[in-house]
Structure formats: structure tokens, C-alpha cells
Amino acid sequence: MKDPESGGKPDLPALQRRLAEFAAARHWQPYHTPKNLVSALSVEACELVEIFQWLTPEESSLVMEDPATAARVTDEVADVLAYLLQLCEVLGIDPLSALDAKIDRNERRFPAPGPP
Amino acid sequence: MKDPESGGKPDLPALQRRLAEFAAARHWQPYHTPKNLVSALSVEACELVEIFQWLTPEESSLVMEDPATAARVTDEVADVLAYLLQLCEVLGIDPLSALDAKIDRNERRFPAPGPP
Amino acid sequence: MKDPESGGKPDLPALQRRLAEFAAARHWQPYHTPKNLVSALSVEACELVEIFQWLTPEESSLVMEDPATAARVTDEVADVLAYLLQLCEVLGIDPLSALDAKIDRNERRFPAPGPP
Amino acid sequence: MKDPESGGKPDLPALQRRLAEFAAARHWQPYHTPKNLVSALSVEACELVEIFQWLTPEESSLVMEDPATAARVTDEVADVLAYLLQLCEVLGIDPLSALDAKIDRNERRFPAPGPP
């Protein structure tokens, strides 16, 4: 499944394909309507929020120092990315192009302050 | 900013760097605590949910047929990915490795049904 | 619609009935499945989060000092409560009894520290 | 704590006071910034969404028929209401007046269809 040319490190399109094959092998596609996937995405995002909800800003910057919390945060990041890629799969959206275009727009919308 | 070797198509690490440079050029890092970024991520995920909240499952599968809705969905997908990458940046998480490891775990947790 | 005995101030059951009549008069009940209402509830909750997402804890405590922000927060609080009551309506849940029972459970789960 | 005049049934202001006393007795107020409370509110709302995320609209209408799911939904409804009331407490918002005013505005914004 992993590209030996890239040293075994998967890229985003490879992970998106792997997720699609994972769902297909388990016959989960009927559950993967766009409506359900955006709900699942928001639930996973809120599970990230839950980790941080009572922390001060300073404490929130130190979460990776505790191995158990670091593992939990990393796991939730993976869940958010998984549902986002599955949503892109069923809708035919290229997430890399979408973000590239969005940054282009934001650069025009929020010009960087220049030198004095 | 884009890698000419890859035909101009950005990959995820390149977009993550571009977002980090974008925030740094605007001096936005003080706002980008992990706690704030997960809140922003959940808000963007809910903006996706908002598009789908009154749709039937069938209608939700057709959202890309309307150009205005397709553009809105694509834009929100980009926003979710942007905040996820910025969160990974400040926490030092590799999102591709995190997801790869998560799929490995899920393959053990949910074995695919074999042939009869 | 308001109870003249209570000086015109509505109570929660009266508001729940008013919302049910409002939806019925507009033939919105087909959209008000429990699944759709919980999505709408989460979207409104995130609209509250959006107001606070870049604020420090201290700034977040002062939001009501700005009249425009105070009005926006109050409006989103109303939206969250509206969808919560509409969810209770379609599911037959009494929100006041549910919360009363929950506080009873929490008092056993988190005993208050006694005097020294 | 419960008003004997009302047959022991609490109203919303009584529950809000009970929650405030509960938090004060445990010295939890420093955690109850508006920013933290809206995060907690959104997390609880998403826990409701999680119950419904893979259900069809029809299945979602039947959740109260299963006692375990009914208890879970009721518990999450209580959690959402608890954080909403605690937010109102720290911000000085009257949730009943806020909702009453919102319905007034919505009646003007979405006029009910009249007789033919």
C-alpha cells in the first residue's frame, strides 16, 4: 500500500485511497453520505476541543509534554483528517487544491504588512 | 512556493509551511494557541455541518451539482484543513504519519470480512 | 401566549409550546428530525464558540461590555436553547427533569469538599 | 432547593441557581470563563450529534424506544442545558427573555402562511 519510492512515507492521496479501500472492504459506504461524514467530522473536532476545554492558553501549549495526552491529541488529529478525506472522496473534492486556492485568496484578502 | 518538480501541485507539507509563513508574516502566532486552533477547527467543521443540516441523505449526495454550494463546501473543506495543519504545526504533529498509524490500528480493530 | 399571572414572563414549557406552534404553522416539522435538530444545535453552539475563539480568558469575561457583541451572544444563546427545546419536543424529553436528575447524579459523583 | 409550592418540580431559574451553587461549592468558578463554557457547550452538543451520526432520519426518530439510548440522549440534553445555564450565569443573560425576544423576531422574519 505504501510507495517504496517515497521511503514508505504515505502522501495524502495515498491515505485517501487507503481509507476508501478500508470503507469499501467493510461495506461502510452506505453510511458515508456527505451529511453523515460532516457530522462525524464535527464530532471528532469536538473531541479535540474536549481535551483543551478547561486548559489555560499556557497549559494548552504544553499538551504534547504528557505522553498520554500527546497520544490522545495525535489520535484525534488522525480522526479529523480521516473524515475530511472521506468527505473529499465522496464529493470529488481535491483537498490540496482547495487549500492552495484558499491561501491564494487569503493572501489577497489579508495583505501582509510591508517593511516600514 | 510551489515545487516545480511536482508540476506546481502542492503537497501537504508544502501547504503546512505556506500556512505557517502566512501567519508569521501577519504576526498572528500569539492567537494560534492549540486551544484557540482547536476551537477554530470545530467552528469550521460546524460551518460544513450547517450546509447539510436540513438536507435529506439523498440531497446531501447532490451538493456538488449546484456550483454555488460546491464552492461553499470546497471553501469550508479548505478551512478545516488549514486549521488542522496549523494545529499540527504548533504541536509538532505529523498528520500523515498520525493517520497512517490510525488506519493500521483500525485494520486490526475492525478486521475486513473475508471470503465465504 | 404569555401567562398574565406571571407578569408576562414566559417559562420554559411555554416557550417550548410556542416554538412547536411556530414550526407547525410553517410546516417545518418534516425538517425537524432528531438528527437534523442535533446538527442545528451543534451549529448554533459553534456560532457561540466563534465569538470567543481568538479571545483571551480575560477578554472573554468582558464580552457583554460591548453592546454589539452582547446582542450577538444573547442571540446565539437563544438559538441554542430554541433547538434544544425543539429536540426535547420531538423526543418527548422534559429538559427540566433531565437536568434536575443530572445535578442529583453529579452531587453524588463529585462530593463537595466539607469543612476542615 | 426545590420549591414545595410547585410540587417539587424545578423551574429554569432554580436549576440555574443550583448549578451556580454546585460550581461554587467545588471552587470551579476559575474554570468557568465564558470561553471555556462555550467550548464545553459545543462538546456536549457534539456528543448528542455522535449518537445520531450514522442513523437514517427514520432511525433517528426512534431513538427513545431503546432505553439505553434514551437515557444517553436525555443525559446529553441535560449536559447541554447545564452548560448553557452556566454560561448565562457568568454573562448575566436571561435565557428565557432571550428566547422570547428571538421568537418575536423570527415571527416577523418568517411570517406564517395565511389562509388561501
TrEMBL record, chains A, B, C, D:
Q: Which Gene3D superfamilies match?
A: MazG-like
Please name the GO terms that the record assigns under molecular function: nucleoside triphosphate diphosphatase activity
Biological process terms from the Gene Ontology for this record are:
nucleoside triphosphate catabolic process
Q: Which domain of life is it from?
A: Bacteria
Q: Name one Pfam family in it.
A: MazG-like
Protein name per the record: Nucleotide pyrophosphohydrolase
* Species, as recorded: Streptomyces capitiformicae
The taxonomy runs:
Bacteria, Bacillati, Actinomycetota, Actinomycetes, Kitasatosporales
